[in-house]
Amino acid sequence: MPYSRNRKRNYRKAAPAAAIRHIAERAELSRRFGGIDREIEQIFLSLSPGELERLFQRYGQSYGDKPEAYAREAYPKWQSGKVKMSGQTAARLLELLPPYLSPEKRFDLVKQLRSRHFQRKSVRLQSTPANWRTDLIKPIQELVASSGLFQLPEDLKETASWLADGDTAAAHRLLAAAEQEEAAIRVIYIDEELRRIESMMRDIDTTRRVSHTLRLPQGDITLNVELPARTLMQKLTGWLR
What is the pLDDT of residues 45-95, one digit of tens each? Predict the structure, then answer.
């Protein structure tokens, strides 16, 4: 009986320690993959049977028969969510994943990586019906310029290279393409937003105030335009009309 109690006590001590270790490993994995590890894990769990078989074979060649057998047995539980993949196992398996990523998926993941680590800004702008367009130009230009100056941290550039299957030049091309796509979308979006604000301005004599937020990839610009309060004479004139 004492032995049984000691064994239970030791198990209770070991369980939290293992949980803490798994949490730390998962946090390290997330840091290593720049926060897109969950998306990458889902790609792994969605591989076709043929792709999965080839990946498991490569996994066994790299880490041995026992880890491969464990991964094969645990895979259905990972898929169903009954068991969470440990940080170490996920890191090993995902390291082998790039050859199974389509060009479109690589591009999407690089865009996510870039977006998650770009420091967005928030700008509030007070203007008038006559000057709102001119006043918007500067903050828009500043936000757009910040996008062109953005660089991924060095450790995350390795993640981008991993997504490109170790090809650093290809990783740079993916990042450049992501910025170009963002720029093209931005131009269309800004033009549409300016037309929307113009439409709102046509009613400002009635509404007395316009407030609108432009949501750009680089940050938000909230424009507030308000007419001066009407004098008593103006109010009387309006009522008489």
Answer: 999 999 999 999 999 999 999 999 999 999 999 999 888 888 888 888 878
DSSP 48: -
Q: Which residues of 215-229 are buried (b: 16+ CB within 10 A; e: fewer)?
A: ebbbbebebebeeee
For tokens 């720029």, the residue is 183
What are the DSSP calls for 137-179, one per residue?
HHHHHHHHHHHHH----HHHHHHHHHHTTT-HHHHHHHHHHHH
Tell me if residue 182 falls in helix, strand or coil: helix
Give the bridge partners for 126, in sequence order.
224
Q: In this predicted model, what pLDDT tens digit does every residue of 15-41 receive, in sequence order?
A: 577 667 767 777 777 777 777 888 888
Q: Which two tokens stand for residue 56?
A: 């498991």
Which residue bears the tokens 């939290």?
Answer: 16
Query: Residue holding tokens 């309006």?
Result: 238
User: What are the Cα distances from residue 68, in Å, to 48, 51, 58?
Assistant: 18, 15, 9
Stated length of the chain: 241
Separation between Cα atoms, residue 91 and residue 22, nearest integer Å: 12
